[in-house]
């Protein structure tokens, strides 16, 4: 309503100004009336003053005519500007209406999204409360379990029991027993069985040592017997050698004489005696060798049994030591694990605090980057507008050329189609002429055949079958001919359609080839410039990378144009690439250090994994009640991992909500930018209105001094003639009646 009233006020002001200007034009003093009034005065002498006065009045009338013309021009300009203003106001009203609709849509969408966000936040709060309650319960259970573990660890220090205590505790049922009592019973059973085994092994060891001593004494006696027999054998061998020498001597003596005949009986007896002794000695030697081998076998068996017994003893001692060591290590590890659990809880609390701090930093950095992003968006939007305007102009020129080419191709196709149509008409006429000739020949043949049939009736009976066969063939040929004509016409139509498609495809392919060639040339030029830039960048980067001092590197860069006031993208890219090269060198150094750290961490991880495998194997071998404690700890770890997964899912949901929020903020910012643009247009309109008001004020100031001149001339005229007294009043009314046009916003 306010805009309509403002328009009506402006129209009233303009109409009033126009009416006042028309009145002023009508009430101007004509020159003929002035001259006639001067002539009526009678015989007044024409003096210099009268001539000057007439000249001044004439000039004044000319100035009034020019002023009326200028007023008309100003009115025309006012009307034009008012029409423009009305159009702009209509556009502004439409824009305001669209803005209101968009604002209403935005408010509705924001309300819906706020409701969704509130619901989601309420659900998140409920889930977080449930998680916190569950975490508190788990912490309380963890505290209780730690206390119970500490009590159990303190109670499991003195586990030794007497036989009476064991019998008393064994008689009780397992439900009534406490954990330390149950552990002490199991420990007593295991230790008691081990002690019994150890006592049995000691008894076996004592018996085996006694047997070993007996076998050692037997071996000593056997070695002594063996040495005695060996001495006897050596003596017998010496005696045998002596006898062989004597035998040789006797043989010599027999050769010398008849000693053989004389001492034959004596030698024979001695020989028999020696042979008997030798056989007995051989028999004894064999018996002694057999007994010696049997004793050596027995000695080897006894030594092997003794070695196995000693090994079993050593193994039992090692097992005992290992079990004691394992017990000590498990107790130490249990203490270490408890300390580690406390440290991990402290680290968890520190991590929570750090997460909160990081979230605050993230919020601050997000706001900062948001402002930067909005600035960059405005700049990029302006660049995109310029680019789109340029591309639209290029597309217009290209589309004009393409339409001209298509018109040319269509004209050529039309000419070709007309020529082909004329050819088809000529071919059709030729076919009709041939068809008429064939009909005439056919009729003549029919007449000839009828005359021949009348003359040769007796032959027709014989050849009726042949004529029927010929008629059938003729019908088939006629059908084939008609079909061939139809197919010929179809093929001609297809050929015409295909030629049209061929020409259209040829024209489209030519346009496409031209576009691709232009694009290829543009890309080739860009690629050449890019390759040159890359070569220059590689050389400069290598020079700057070899320099360790940053000041010298920057001097080299400044020598190649870095930092100069030349607005080229190549130098900007040069700057970016050099900074990137420096960053790359720093990152390579950091990467090498990180690789070393990673290898060290891998070694530590392998060691820890080995220790963990050992601990898991030991834990799998552990019996009650440690097994129960370990299972509870594992269940708690699994629950903690599930809670962590749930927390990660919630964080992902929060990130998605943040993304949605950023998208909504972008929409809101776009709407705000559109509103700012509309407001800027409104400001431009206001500036135009102010310019018009200033122009009208200048014209009004110019009109004022002219009205004063008219008043002075009218007063002088009144002194000379009383009939012209009313004219200045009318002129004053005509001069001061137009009101200035008011522009109400």
From TrEMBL:
<protein>
    <submittedName>
        <fullName>PIBF1 factor</fullName>
    </submittedName>
</protein>
<dbReference type="InterPro" id="IPR026205">
    <property type="entry name" value="PIBF1"/>
</dbReference>
<feature type="coiled-coil region">
    <location>
        <begin position="60"/>
        <end position="155"/>
    </location>
</feature>
<feature type="region of interest" description="Disordered">
    <location>
        <begin position="710"/>
        <end position="745"/>
    </location>
</feature>
<dbReference type="GO" id="GO:0005815">
    <property type="term" value="C:microtubule organizing center"/>
</dbReference>
<feature type="coiled-coil region">
    <location>
        <begin position="481"/>
        <end position="550"/>
    </location>
</feature>
<keyword id="KW-0175">Coiled coil</keyword>
<feature type="coiled-coil region">
    <location>
        <begin position="584"/>
        <end position="667"/>
    </location>
</feature>
<dbReference type="GO" id="GO:0060271">
    <property type="term" value="P:cilium assembly"/>
</dbReference>
<feature type="coiled-coil region">
    <location>
        <begin position="191"/>
        <end position="430"/>
    </location>
</feature>
<feature type="compositionally biased region" description="Polar residues">
    <location>
        <begin position="713"/>
        <end position="723"/>
    </location>
</feature>
């Amino acid at each position: 309503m306010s805009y309509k009233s403002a328009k009506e006020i402006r129209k009233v002001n303009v109409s009033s100004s126009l009416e006042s200007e028309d009145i002023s034009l009508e009430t101007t003093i004509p020159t003929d009336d002035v001259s006639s009034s001067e002539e009526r005065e009678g015989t007044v002498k024409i003096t210099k003053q009268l001539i000057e006065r007439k000249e001044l009045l004439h000039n004044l009338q000319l100035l009034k005519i020019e002023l009326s013309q200028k007023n008309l021009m100003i009115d025309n300009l006012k009307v034009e500007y008012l029409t423009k203003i009305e159009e702009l106001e209509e556009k502004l009203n439409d824009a305001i209406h669209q803005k209101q609709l968009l604002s209403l849509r935005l408010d509705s969408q924001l309300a819906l999204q706020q409701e969704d966000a509130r619901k989601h936040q309420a659900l998140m709060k409920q889930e977080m409360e449930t998680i916190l309650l569950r975490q508190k319960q788990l912490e309380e259970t963890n505290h209780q379990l730690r206390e119970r573990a500490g009590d159990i660890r303190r109670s499991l220090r003195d586990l030794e029991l007497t036989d009476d205590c064991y019998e008393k505790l064994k008689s009780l049922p397992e439900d009534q027993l406490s954990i330390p009592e149950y552990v002490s019973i199991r420990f007593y059973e295991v230790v008691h069985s081990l002690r019994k085994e150890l006592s049995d092994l000691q008894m076996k060891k004592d018996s085996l040592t006694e047997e070993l001593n007996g076998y050692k004494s037997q071996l000593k006696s056997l070695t002594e017997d063996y040495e005695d027999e060996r001495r006897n054998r050596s003596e017998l061998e010496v005696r045998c050698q002596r006898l062989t020498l004597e035998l040789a001597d006797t043989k010599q003596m027999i050769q010398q004489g008849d000693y053989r005949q004389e001492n034959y009986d004596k030698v024979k007896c001695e020989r028999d005696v020696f042979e008997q002794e030798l056989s007995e000695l051989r028999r004894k030697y064999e018996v002694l060798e057999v007994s010696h081998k049997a004793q050596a076998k027995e000695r080897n068996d006894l030594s092997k049994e003794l070695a196995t017994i000693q090994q079993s003893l050593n193994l039992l001692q090692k097992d005992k030591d290992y079990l004691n060591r394992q017990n000590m290590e498990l107790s130490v590890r249990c203490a270490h694990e408890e300390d580690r659990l406390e440290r991990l809880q402290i680290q968890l609390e520190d991590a929570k605090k750090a997460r909160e701090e990081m979230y605050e930093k993230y919020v601050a950095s997000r706001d900062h980057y948001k402002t930067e992003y909005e600035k960059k968006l405005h700049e990029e939007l302006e660049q995109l507008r310029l680019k789109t305007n340029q591309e639209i102009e290029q597309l217009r020129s290209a589309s004009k050329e393409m339409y001209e080419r298509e018109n040319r191709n269509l004209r050529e196709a039309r000419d070709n189609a007309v020529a082909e149509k004329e050819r088809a008409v000529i071919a059709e006429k030729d076919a009709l002429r041939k068809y008429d000739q064939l009909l005439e020949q056919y009729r003549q043949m029919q007449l000839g055949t009828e005359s021949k049939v009348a003359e040769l009736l007796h032959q027709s009976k014989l050849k009726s079958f042949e004529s029927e066969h010929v008629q059938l063939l003729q019908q088939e040929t006629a059908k084939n001919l008609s079909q061939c004509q139809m197919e010929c016409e179809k093929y001609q139509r297809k050929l015409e359609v295909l030629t049209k498609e061929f020409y259209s495809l040829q024209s489209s392919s030519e346009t496409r080839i031209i576009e691709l060639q232009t694009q290829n040339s543009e890309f080739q030029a860009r690629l050449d410039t890019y390759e040159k830039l890359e070569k220059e960048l590689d050389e400069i980067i290598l020079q700057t990378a070899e320099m360790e001092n940053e000041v010298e590197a920057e001097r080299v860069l400044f020598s190649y144009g870095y930092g100069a006031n030349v607005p080229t993208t190549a130098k900007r890219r040069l700057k970016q690439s050099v900074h990137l090269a420096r960053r790359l060198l720093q990152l390579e150094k950091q990467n090498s250090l990180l690789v070393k750290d990673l290898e060290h961490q891998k070694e530590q991880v392998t060691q820890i994994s080995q220790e963990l495998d050992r601990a898991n194997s030991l834990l799998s071998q552990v019996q009650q009640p440690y097994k129960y404690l370990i299972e509870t700890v594992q269940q708690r770890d699994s629950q903690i991992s599930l809670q962590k997964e749930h927390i990660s899912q919630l964080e992902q949901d929060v990130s998605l909500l943040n993304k949605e929020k950023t998208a909504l903020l972008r929409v809101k910012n776009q709407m705000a930018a559109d509103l700012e643009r509309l407001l800027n247009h409104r400001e431009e309109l206001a500036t135009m209105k102010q310019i018009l008001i200033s122009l009208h004020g200048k014209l009004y100031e110019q009109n004022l001094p002219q009205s004063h001149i008219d008043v002075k001339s009218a007063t002088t005229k009144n002194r000379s003639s009383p009939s012209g007294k009313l004219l200045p009043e009318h002129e004053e009314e005509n001069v001061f009646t137009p009101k200035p046009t008011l522009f109400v916003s």
